[in-house]
Write a structure and sequence with these properties.
The protein is an alpha+beta fold and 133 residues long. It is 23% helix and 41% strand. It binds cobalt (II) ion.
């Protein structure tokens, strides 16, 4: 089994402070990490759930992929991040299994991780992120 854990469930939101406040009130969740990822045009907040995270995502510019997702589908589940020991090996295995990669080689993610995204087409409608810590 290539996946070791669910790293995060990413939810696209328009109002980040309101979403943080909601998760704090609803679950008693606390902000574990906050980061602007310029190359992806997103600000993300991670709220820890055991060894996994809820990741709230909001666009920092109108042409970012998350902005496009919000325009197209509204707020809600954006992708699932699966933790892997070796991102390159996991990517290779997924492509061999018929997945369509968005990243053909792993690249830097937030919190110093190495990540690769897999297109929802060919993965039964879910955008998948492979996350190596
Ligand atoms: Co992610």
């Amino acid at each position: 089994m290539i996946l070791t854990e669910i790293d995060h469930v990413a939810i696209a939101v328009r109002d980040l402070p309101a979403a943080i406040n909601y998760y704090q009130r609803a679950f008693g969740a606390t902000v574990d990490h906050r980061e602007v990822v310029e190359r992806d045009g997103v600000e993300e907040v991670l709220m820890k759930v055991a060894d996994s995270y809820i990741q709230l995502l909001t666009p920092t510019r109108p042409d970012s992929p998350v902005a496009k997702a919000l325009d197209k589908r509204g707020e809600g589940l954006h992708h699932v991040g699966y933790r892997v020991a070796d991102c390159a090996a996991a990517l290779k295995a997924m492509v061999a299994a018929g997945a369509t990669p968005i990243d053909t080689v792993p690249r830097p993610g937030s919190r110093g991780t190495t990540v690769a995204f897999i297109h929802p087409k060919g993965s039964f409608g879910t955008l998948i992120e492979l996350v190596q810590e």
